[in-house]
Amino acid sequence: MAVECPHCGKMTELTLAAPPQEPVIKRRTVVWTIIAGVILAGGAIALLAGSKWLQNYAARHKKGAATPSHSTLDTRYSPTNSAPVPETESAPADNGLHASEVGVEKSRDSSFVYAVGTLTNVTKRQRFGVKIELDLFDAGGEKIGTAKDYQAILEPGGQWHFKALVVDPKAVSAKVAGIRED
């Protein structure tokens, strides 16, 4: 299209300037897509790592139910640091759970006193939420309190080395009062 120039009066050809070239996909869209991809990849990696950790954690605790875990106790001393503490007779079986003798022992690394023993699952099935309650006795044989411990899972044929905190310093012996399963 040709028009007369208002300044000089000559004929001038008018042309439109070509619009700037814009990509089909805006740069901002590409950047946000890359950020979202990185976040998704990081989440997937975290999910896989967490899954692997959880499998290892479960395997460790499954093995831990059948292995001794109370190696820090010193069985040579009673709570008063005198003669060794007498142990009670073993408790009768309670639904396929057999308890060994229960002793009262002072921890080697601290002043805590524990009632310790072993509970064996003689059945061929897992036991869940196993609780043991122990009666505590003084030197005269009088009951002076109770102590409790809990094990989430006890495998078939597995042993649980229980360790119940004794809060009464006069306790010198313990006996199984009851074994329950949730």
> What letter string, H or E per element, gives the SSE order?
EEHEEEEEEEE
**Strand percent estimate:** 35-45%
Number of domains: 2
Q: In CATH, what is the class of the largest domain?
A: Mainly Beta
What radius of gyration results from the CA coordinates? 37 Å
Overall shape = rod-shaped
Looking at the structure, the CATH topology of the largest domain is: Immunoglobulin-like
The helix count comes to 1
The CATH architecture of the largest domain can be named as Sandwich
Contiguous runs where pLDDT drops below 50 for at least 5 residues: 66-93
Helix-strand makeup class: alpha+beta
Number of strands: 10
Arithmetic mean pLDDT: 83
Distance between the termini: 93 Å
Question: Helix amount, in percent?
Answer: 10-25%
Biggest sheet record? 5 strands, antiparallel
Short description:
By secondary structure, the chain is α+β, with helices and mostly antiparallel strands. The chain is built from one helix and ten strands; from the N terminus they run E-E-H-E-E-E-E-E-E-E-E.
Structure explained in plain terms:
With 182 residues, the protein is α+β, with helices and mostly antiparallel strands. The protein folds into 2 domains: 41 residues; 109 residues, Immunoglobulin-like. It is built from 1 helix and 10 strands. The strands form 3 sheets. Strands 3, 4, 5, 6 and 9 form a 5-stranded antiparallel β-sheet that branches. The radius of gyration is 37 Å and the shape is rod-shaped. It starts with a strand and ends with a strand.
